[in-house]
Write a structure and sequence with these properties.
Structural class: alpha/beta
CATH architecture of the largest domain: 2-Layer Sandwich
Helix content: 55-70%
Radius of gyration: 27 Å
Strand order of the largest sheet: 5-4-1-6-7
Number of strands: 7
CATH class of the largest domain: Alpha Beta
Largest sheet: 5 strands, mixed
Number of helices: 17
Number of domains: 3
Distance between the termini: 32 Å
Shape: flat
Order of helices and strands: HHHHHHHHHEHHHHEEEEHEHEHH
Strand content: 5-15%
CATH topology of the largest domain: Nucleotidyltransferase, domain 5
Length: 454
């Protein structure tokens, strides 16, 4: 804000209104807008401290301050746009510039890649727990029943093509063949003979088939596995013979290790006709694993699984993992984490998978009322218990699961398009809390007319 005031104060335009008063008019109009209401409910200073962001004193001054970098990530999730379109919108929208704490004037931001650079910088510093505690302290006055916690798990899918075995093996074959040709061209040696072009024609002929017979699938898999093994051995032979003449970047060795692991996994799967643990489904995102969800529409999803807790419609990430986990084991941790955020917990609503004997006993010991189906005899207040359990179950099934759909459809969480594991976590974090900020902003807007009427 002070930076904007300095800029407006130095504007040489002739006006009957003083620059300070002109700025206040723009600022008041911004605060009344929807994005301005979101700006008011975000605890900027606490977030900057929690992420330990500081302005660099070296080099030229940056366009975005530490607060502006955070604002850009909120704006990215709020607009649900790509980096390129976000920069185009930022160039022409004055309210979005004020949200990020910048004033471009006649200038234009041309390089849209700075958005991904800022995302990568913040992803390296993100620690979910302390940042969420800052949100909880700021939003606690707007949460009516912080003693009631809802719990459920969801999966945020990564942006990858559907990983069939043949597609994955072909990607590895294609990458290894391309690397071998580039290496031989650099060393000015003939490329070893392989049946890559022949297998390429057969692969595309197979992919064009509308119905793929099982025999053809087995034949293509066997041929591609043999070709991939041969390409890896040829490339290693070339590397060993010319080790003193050529050096590769670290990305090359990392990708090569991933492809070797893919080969061993696919060979084992082809031999045993069953899946393997920690199965790689993408050579670009080796950290993504299949998450079996058991849904009717999507039985398997590919992306991080998140155990979420909710207070009065506001979601907080309790646990995030790219490996599959049983969410029923997270109930104790969820209650403990909920207490660190908002204090005492008296009621809990969760899916039937959480209703294990261990969790039931823990909730009884902690005097927590749940929506779990009763086991054993009915107590004195069975009717009262059923009413409470029904309300808790209804709240979780409608409000919490509805919030998952809202975040995925409107806040960039339908397909996570980040390219690294840390960036995907940051993408999910800002998507979830941007949706929370919108909900809190609506409550703040409803409170102000009631206070004015009183």
């Amino acid at each position: 804000m002070s930076k904007l005031q300095r800029i407006f104060g130095s504007t040489p335009e002739i006006s009957f209104i003083s620059p300070q008063k002109e700025f206040s008019l723009y600022w008041n109009k911004f605060l009344k807008s929807e994005i301005g209401k979101i700006y008011q409910v975000i605890p900027w200073n606490e977030l900057v401290k929690a992420l330990k962001l500081k302005e660099s004193r070296k080099g030229r001054s940056a366009y975005f301050s530490p607060q502006g970098k955070l604002a850009l990530m909120f704006l990215k999730a709020y607009t649900n746009l790509s980096d390129r379109k976000l920069v185009e919108l930022l160039n022409g929208n004055f309210e979005y510039q004020m949200f990020c704490g910048i004033f471009l004037g006649p200038e234009r931001l041309l390089d849209y890649k700075f958005v991904s650079k800022i995302r990568t910088e913040l992803a390296g510093k993100l620690q979910i727990s302390p940042v969420q505690q800052a949100f909880a302290r700021a939003w606690k006055p707007y949460i009516q029943q912080p003693n009631i916690v809802l719990e459920d798990a969801t999966c945020y899918e990564s942006y990858i093509r559907y990983p069939t075995n043949i597609k994955l093996i072909w990607e590895c074959v294609e990458w290894m063949y391309r690397q071998m040709k580039l290496t031989c061209k650099y060393l000015k040696i003939p490329t070893p003979r392989t049946k890559f072009l022949e297998q390429k024609d057969k692969y595309f002929a197979y992919m064009r088939m509308r119905k793929k017979p099982w025999k053809d699938t087995v034949k293509r898999t066997r041929s591609l596995l043999y070709l991939l093994d041969k390409l890896i051995k040829l490339q290693e032979k070339i590397d060993d013979q010319n080790r003193s003449w050529i050096t590769y970047p670290e990305k090359y060795y990392k990708r090569k290790r991933i492809i070797r692991k893919v080969l061993s996994q696919q060979q084992e799967m082809f031999r045993t006709k069953s899946s393997v643990p920690d199965r790689i489904v993408s050579i670009a995102k080796d950290y993504v694993h299949p998450i079996v969800r058991g849904k009717e529409v999507k039985k398997v999803e590919f992306g991080p699984k998140v155990n979420m807790i909710q207070f009065d419609g506001i979601n907080f990430i309790e646990h995030l993992d790219f490996n599959p986990f049983n969410e029923s084991t997270r109930l104790k941790n969820s209650v403990w984490y909920a207490r660190t955020l908002f204090g005492k917990i008296t009621h809990l609503s969760a899916d039937d998978i959480y209703a294990t004997n261990t969790n039931r006993q823990y909730c009884r010991e902690q005097n927590i009322v749940t929506n779990f189906k009763r086991k054993g005899r009915a107590g004195k207040h069975e009717n009262h218990r059923q009413i409470i359990a029904g309300e808790l179950r209804k709240e979780r099934a409608t409000r919490m699961e509805g919030s998952f759909g809202t975040e995925k459809q409107h806040y960039s969480l339908d397909k996570i398009k980040a390219r690294t594991q840390q960036n995907e976590i940051l993408w999910i974090f800002f998507g979830v809390h941007t949706a929370n900020a919108v909900r809190i902003a609506k409550r703040l807007a409803q409170e102000k007319p009631s206070q004015a009427a009183a």
